[in-house]
Design goal:
By secondary structure, the chain is of the alpha+beta class. 36% of the residues lie in helices and 26% in strands. The strands form six sheets. It has a six-stranded antiparallel beta sheet, with helices on one face. A five-stranded mixed beta sheet has the order 5-10-9-8-7, with helices on both faces. Helix 10 links the parallel strand 12 and strand 13. Helix 6 packs parallel to helix 7. The longest helix has 20 residues.
Length: 428
């Protein structure tokens, strides 16, 4: 049984996406196939291995490991309503960033680094570069891939996914998921900062024992536990100073404020402030797990927020490159059509155009101190806009009242031709 345990630990330490079999594990570790089989079955039950139809048995991320993490290809597959074309064995691998392949191959190479995913159309050369650089491929417009790309993806265990959405919609969906994931990562829990195996005192010990323990450790606040190890109190200098050294701590200890490992640090900080305590024991039922202090809380919150910069949305990144002016009562935003804005036909994405209209309308309404929520948008596309062309969004506030406003929107191309018309309604 001890040997099986060692094999289980070996499997758990394998990289995500690694293919294994009874024979390969037995050969690699010099053990019997029976022992290898038992270890593999145990890892499957715990969620560390998964048997996939075409790929065989693969090391995957178990539920125990899925705490704070990046997106995986499997999640992206669901987000974009995609179809997996190849590389199934790598479906559990994490994704750290995405790159939009709307550029020449030479320029694209410097942006493609391991751990990302390339959003690109029906461009086999770009797909090939991505796979060679350990990047997944997400093909927009519902296109498939060649057999050569599929075989390469399977061999490298790097997924190739096809989605019927246009490039902008895919990028917006992934960007939103990454942003939401970062917000989850910013939530700090007590289990992230608590000190385990803290020093404690027993309820039958005396004030003199507290003094000796304080001198030995340099601490002066301690949890007090009973004979079963359950936290029954907290003892601090103001509880015992001036008291008889022979008296038991149980006479002076205060009722403890407690939190569990899943309590958010923000809530723990609130409790510390409300109860005016410096330390809080961390417990799970009757089990004493650790302790947190005000210093731990402040340090943890500072490190977490310093390590994660605010993520800009894809929409913000697009709008920030627009110029802006007011002219003849109209508000004009001007920009250039880039690759990420295009649909599969090579023209401006309808979903992107809707976003631009809403975003620009929101900006001018807020500039007039009209804090609003977009209620409705109507849009009529008259003609397409080609890539690399300049265009402008002209907005006119045609109606406003205490309860709602309406903004008329015209999208003009570089030849001053109207290519789209719309109306955005907002409620105050």
């Amino acid at each position: 049984m001890a040997k099986v345990h060692l094999v289980v630990n070996h499997i758990k330490n394998l990289e995500i996406g690694r293919k294994i079999s009874v024979r390969s594990i037995a050969s690699e570790l010099g053990i019997s196939e029976g022992t290898a089989y038992k270890a593999i079955k145990e890892c499957e039950e715990e969620g560390y291995l998964k048997t996939l139809p075409r790929a065989g048995t693969v090391r995957v991320e178990s539920p125990k490991e899925k705490k704070i993490k990046n997106l995986t290809y499997e999640e992206v597959l669901k987000i974009v309503d995609g179809e997996l074309l190849g590389g199934e064995a790598g479906i559990e691998k994490p994704i750290y960033k995405f790159v939009i392949g709307a550029m020449e191959l030479d320029a694209m190479k410097k942006y493609i680094t391991p751990g990302g995913i390339l959003i690109v159309g029906n461009r086999e050369a770009a797909q090939n570069i991505a796979l060679k650089n350990e990047n997944g491929v997400l093909i927009s417009g519902g296109f498939g891939c060649t057999e050569k790309i599929r075989e390469m993806a399977d061999r490298l265990s790097i997924p190739v996914i096809s989605s019927s959405y246009d490039t902008y919609t895919i990028a917006a969906l992934i960007n939103k998921a990454l942003s939401q994931n970062l917000i989850r990562q910013r939530i700090l829990y007590v289990s992230d900062i608590m000190k385990t195996a803290p020093v404690s005192l027993n309820d039958y010990e005396t004030v003199n024992d507290w003094k000796r323990r304080a001198e030995e450790t340099g601490f002066d606040r301690f949890p007090v536990v009973d004979e079963k190890g359950k936290v029954v109190g907290m003892i601090t200098p103001r509880d015992v100073l001036g008291k008889d050294g022979a008296e038991p701590l149980s006479k002076y200890m205060k009722k403890p404020v407690q939190v569990n490992p899943r309590t958010t640090v923000a809530y723990a900080a609130h409790i510390m402030e409300w109860e005016d305590v410096e330390q809080i024991p961390v417990t799970e039922g009757d089990k004493f797990l650790g302790i947190i202090s005000r210093g731990d809380v402040l340090k943890g919150l500072k490190e977490r927020w310093m390590s994660h910069k605010t993520v800009e949305s894809l929409e913000d990144r697009i709008i920030e490159h627009f110029s802006y002016e007011e002219k003849n009562g109209k508000f004009i935003f001007s920009g250039r059509v880039t690759g990420e804005m295009l649909d599969p036909l090579g023209t401006l994405s309808r979903s992107l155009l809707s976003m631009i209209m809403v975003k620009c309308s929101s900006i001018i309404l807020k500039n007039r101190n009209l804090y609003t929520e977009i209620d409705n948008i109507s849009m009529n596309i008259i003609k397409p806009i080609q890539p690399e062309h300049y265009f402008s969004v002209e907005l006119e506030l045609v109606f406003t009242s205490k309860s709602h406003s309406k903004v008329e929107v015209r999208v003009m191309n570089s030849d001053s031709e109207c290519v789209a018309l719309g109306m955005v309604s907002a409620v105050h």
